[in-house]
């Protein structure tokens, strides 16, 4: 049981420091420095940590991350997203719960254009929540679709969290991104079915109201002008990877160029938007790279101290079988998701889980996708689900966290159901990567 001391010290230190409010990267650096002196040869270990910096962030797999951030920020800051919502609103017609469907549809498109759950939920919340509440939608019909659609960006490519996970876990990033397409579309379908069932069970939850009659030609024109061009962007990012035309890095570059072209076409281009976009991407990228450098050293200390091998031996000593072990890992993430953000969970769990996954011969892409789905659940579970607070920030005064959590509950349950389906039917995740020969 010699491994328990370094294991408890390393994991406990990080949890305590983050609990005290220290930023994730600095919590890891502080723990790393203490761990280096205790288990890694003191000052020589610190020299090794410094030398890790350049190696950790010059990984080619990380190159798409800043470009996906630029693409998503350009899309949201330029106002292109509002055009998509307007076109969907015209197209759906006088369907009960129409604004919930508009929210889900728009959020699904935005997920394929931004890669950011927080940006997705923030935009949908600020644009759609006031209108739905004004139309007397009940809270679960107003906030639920926003929370559900916001979380889709975790698995629908280009997922920035997917790029980060692939890089940290040394999983083929392109295969991992494409693996999320079918489960992502299935989750959108499940969410749509949920909205339909909710309106059938409680018609008053989404009252119908008079909608101006719009000709078929006007609907076609709105879709052609505002949604089909976004399909061009999705092809630039997702289609080129599936067809083997481009790597994730190249597709990210194509996506940025595609958004710039649309800005000129729609006369939305301005240097102010460009500057704000680059500023957004720079801040997030810098913090992400700082976290990655810290996690690289943490993984080395974890292995060198014997904590990693000891933990793996202890876990595999239980006769739970592969699926029992998989269930344990998913449950750990679900519990951590109630108290931690996704990046923190990833940095703590990947050094523990990936060796176990390889020991049981889990396909890394399949396993990585299930981890992403489990991390996604953490976005909407109280008391610290980030999406809950994003949407709570745009909700009317007096809206409680409990209201948000109840609205998110059926969407969380459907995501858990999807994790079960992917576990039972691995081809849901592996079919498209298999077509690509990965």
How would you sum up this structure, described in words?
The protein is an all-alpha fold. 77% of the residues lie in helices and 0% in strands. It contains 22 helices and no strands. α11 packs across α21.
**Coarse structural class:** mainly alpha
Please provide the ordered H/E string of secondary-structure elements.
HHHHHHHHHHHHHHHHHHHHHH
Percentage of residues in DSSP E strands:
under 5%
Oligomer: single chain
Q: How many β-strands, per DSSP?
A: 0
For the residues shown, what is the average pLDDT?
Answer: 81
The level of helicity is over 70%
Low-confidence segments, given as residue ranges, are: none
User: Could you tell me how far the N terminus lies from the C terminus, measured between alpha carbons in angstroms?
Assistant: 40 Å
Specify the number of helices: 22
Based on CA inertia axes, which overall geometry fits? globular
Q: C-alpha Rg, in Å?
A: 22 Å
Q: What profile does the largest beta sheet have? A: none
Primary descriptors:
about 450 residues; single chain; 22 helices; mainly alpha
